[in-house]
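Working notes for the structural subgroup meeting. M.R. asked for a predicted model of this chain before we commit to crystallization trials. I am recording the input and output together here so anyone reviewing the notebook later can reproduce the run.

Input as submitted:
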Amino acid sequence: LTSQERTAAAGVMIVEEQAYNKLTAEEEYVTEQKGTEAPFSGEYTTQKDQGTYVCRRCNAALYESADKFDSHCGWPSFDDEIPAAVDRHPDPDGHRIEIVCHNCEGHLGHVFLGEAMTDKDTRHCVNSLSMIFIPDGESPPDVLHPRQD
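Returned structure, recorded in token form:
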């Protein structure tokens, strides 16, 4: 018997865990290896449609289009996140603050403070490859492995 068959025979329920979304090699490089896409190459850099940006890895809602602004830095920029959607960590380089999805800890980019680009004085510089845009009126996909905290 396999270990799965032995577990089932012992009366223990087996629940298969659904994997995160399948990512391309480039998306994996950014979200899982903390990479950065080339500036001005992302599909959402100049996006102006109304909707919600969700994590490409787990589908958790991250940003609303109302908080997106043109920073001309080469990546999509937001001056606020959806409450409790994004976590901040000191970057290993000691000069920046990394931002990650609160749900799956996928790398999003970096946050910069004190640049005076918006009234909120905050710029989330986010890789397009770490997000999926869901237009207003469309249902977002279910969040994979919702965090329970």
